[in-house]
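Long-time lurker, first post. I've been practising inverse folding by hand and with some scripts of my own, and I keep getting stuck on stretches where the structure tokens seem ambiguous. Below is the full token string for one chain I'm working on. Before anyone asks, I'm not after the true native sequence, just a reasonable design that respects the backbone. If someone could post their per-position residues I'd love to compare against what I wrote down in my notebook.
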């Protein structure tokens, strides 16, 4: 089997591995590096479950080979927590606003939104919906995910304590909505 050396930085750690040339980046992250927060759903770029950051940009790792990531900096969902192990603002907002979906799709949402909020610090609801429209979940709605992102923006803007009751979740509204 044709193998090549891949050297990259993942979540701040330099790694080097000899891998099969055709190994997917998702498989490299999950199987070689044991970072299983990055999930594999459709494996053809549709669902967003495999979203990571590549040099700060969100990408679908199922559409890349591991060898194509040689020399890059990768961030996975495992990188999001604060240094002391607590949830970062985005994760805490998802928790508080009931934006957490299943463990399968949530990491992808978090990584997509992480990238999005770097580009747009004060998005409209429409822009948030557009940003997450490439992350698929058919189990429930997107309403509380949108609220989670809005709360993150609010928290970052005001630096208010996350314990303040700024998220008013209406469970009845957390039903499937059309994302256009
Ligand atoms: S597994 Fe990559 S987009 Fe679905
Ligand atoms: S795919 Fe995760 S809750 Fe639907």
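-- Answer (accepted) --
I ran through it position by position. Result:
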């Amino acid at each position: 089997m044709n193998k090549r050396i891949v050297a990259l930085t993942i979540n701040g750690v330099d790694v080097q591995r000899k891998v099969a040339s055709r190994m997917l980046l998702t498989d490299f992250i999950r199987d070689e590096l044991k970072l299983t927060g990055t999930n594999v759903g459709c494996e053809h770029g549709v669902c967003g479950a495999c979203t990571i950051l590549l040099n700060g940009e969100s990408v679908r790792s199922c559409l890349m080979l591991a060898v194509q990531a040689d020399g890059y900096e990768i961030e996975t969902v495992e990188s999001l927590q604060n240094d002391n192990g607590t949830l970062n603002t985005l994760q805490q907002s998802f928790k508080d606003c009931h934006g957490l979906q299943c463990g399968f799709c949530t990491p992808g949402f978090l990584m997509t939104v992480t990238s999005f909020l770097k580009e747009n610090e004060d998005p409209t609801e429409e822009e948030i919906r557009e940003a997450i429209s490439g992350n698929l979940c058919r189990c429930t709605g997107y309403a509380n995910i949108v609220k989670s992102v809005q709360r993150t923006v609010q928290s970052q803007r005001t630096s208010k304590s996350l314990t303040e009751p700024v998220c008013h979740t209406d469970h009845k509204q957390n039903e499937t909505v059309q994302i256009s």
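A couple of notes from the structure itself: The two ends are 44 Å apart (CA to CA). Confidence is low (pLDDT under 50) at residues 172-180. Happy to go over any region you disagree with.
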